[in-house]
Amino acid sequence: MDSISQAALGAAVAGAVAGRRCTPKVLLAGAALGTLPDLDVLLDYGDPISNMVKHRGFSHSLFVLLPFAAVLAVLWKRVVAKDWPLWQLMALIGLSLITHPLLDSFTSYGTQLFWPFAVPPVAISSMFIIDPAYTIPLLVPVLAAFIWRSRAAKLCAAGLTISSLYLVWSLVALGMMKDRVEENVAGTHLEGQPVFMAPSPLNTVLWRIVILDGDKYWEGLASLMDEDPAIDWMPMVRGEWPFPSPPPLLIDLERFTKGFVSFEQQNDDLVVTDLRLGMATYHPFSFVMAMQSENGVWALTEPTQLDPGPVLPRTIPALWLRLLGAQHIDAMLCNENDCFRDEP
């Protein structure tokens, strides 16, 4: 999730755990702890693909954060808060830290909660990385806690309750979409194929679905406000890797994305794209991984990340109308030169 949401969550957790001891300093400390795990973004792992797949790694691991919280609590008690019970400091610091990766795990990006064990990143995909419906009910009580200090802990607890209920709702919405997709592909060749679904930007009402199908994939949008349960699928070229075996970086990327990648030749470049993030023909994570010589021979190259460019101005109002159930405008969200509508 975004830094504002993480800071608000950390502050709310700290305020609720502190109880009568809650002060503005405690809230600020919780906000700092809530954003601390994301400092790993400052690390350079040598190439853009490694930077992507290793983000939310060790700094988001429960096996790192919990021992770190215990050590930090002991130091905090000795130096800063000598009158605090140690258990309360451990709870405040530990919960402020681990709620960060737990919240991240609700997004599509993936969070390595169990690093260093070889377990796939946890990515529930029920939340977009920025969602005002989650952040505002959490942020407003936290800001109010700075003013009404006598009620600070209760305000923080109220914000946590509302935001947590929204997380529960996102899981309910995800389940509803899974049922709808299963009904749509039942009896077709897409039944049983790998499916990815995630909410579109800033909401949990309009969902994007991607289904892998060999050298192509099918993409569709579905809103909880649709009157017609049928999904208008758009088949797109997925391509394939031109070498006999994938290099380690591609193996890492496919593991990270659970296979939801595409391969496209752009001039003399082979572009590998993470299909989970973005929509239709707009994807923020695309990498050049190979180049083709004049005689048509492919050769691996040092990965470089492509600039996705600006979002088309028509996209935002079209997304809003689509969220409200306007199923006829699906084509507005897709470049007609790159994809078309069809039945699976």
From TrEMBL:
- The membrane spanning regions, by residue number, are 58-77, 84-103, 123-148, 155-177
An annotated Gene Ontology molecular function: hydrolase activity
Q: Which domain of life is it from?
A: Bacteria
| Keywords, sorted A to Z | Hydrolase, Membrane, Transmembrane, Transmembrane helix
Q: Which InterPro entries match?
A: Transcription_regulator (IPR053170), YdjM-like (IPR007404)
The keyword Coiled coil is annotated on this UniProt entry: no
> Signal peptide location in the record?
none
Please report a single Pfam family linked to this protein.
YdjM
Which PANTHER family is this protein grouped with? HYPOTHETICAL MEMBRANE SPANNING PROTEIN (PTHR40031), MEMBRANE-BOUND METAL-DEPENDENT HYDROLASE (PTHR40031:SF1)
Specify the protein name: Metal-dependent hydrolase
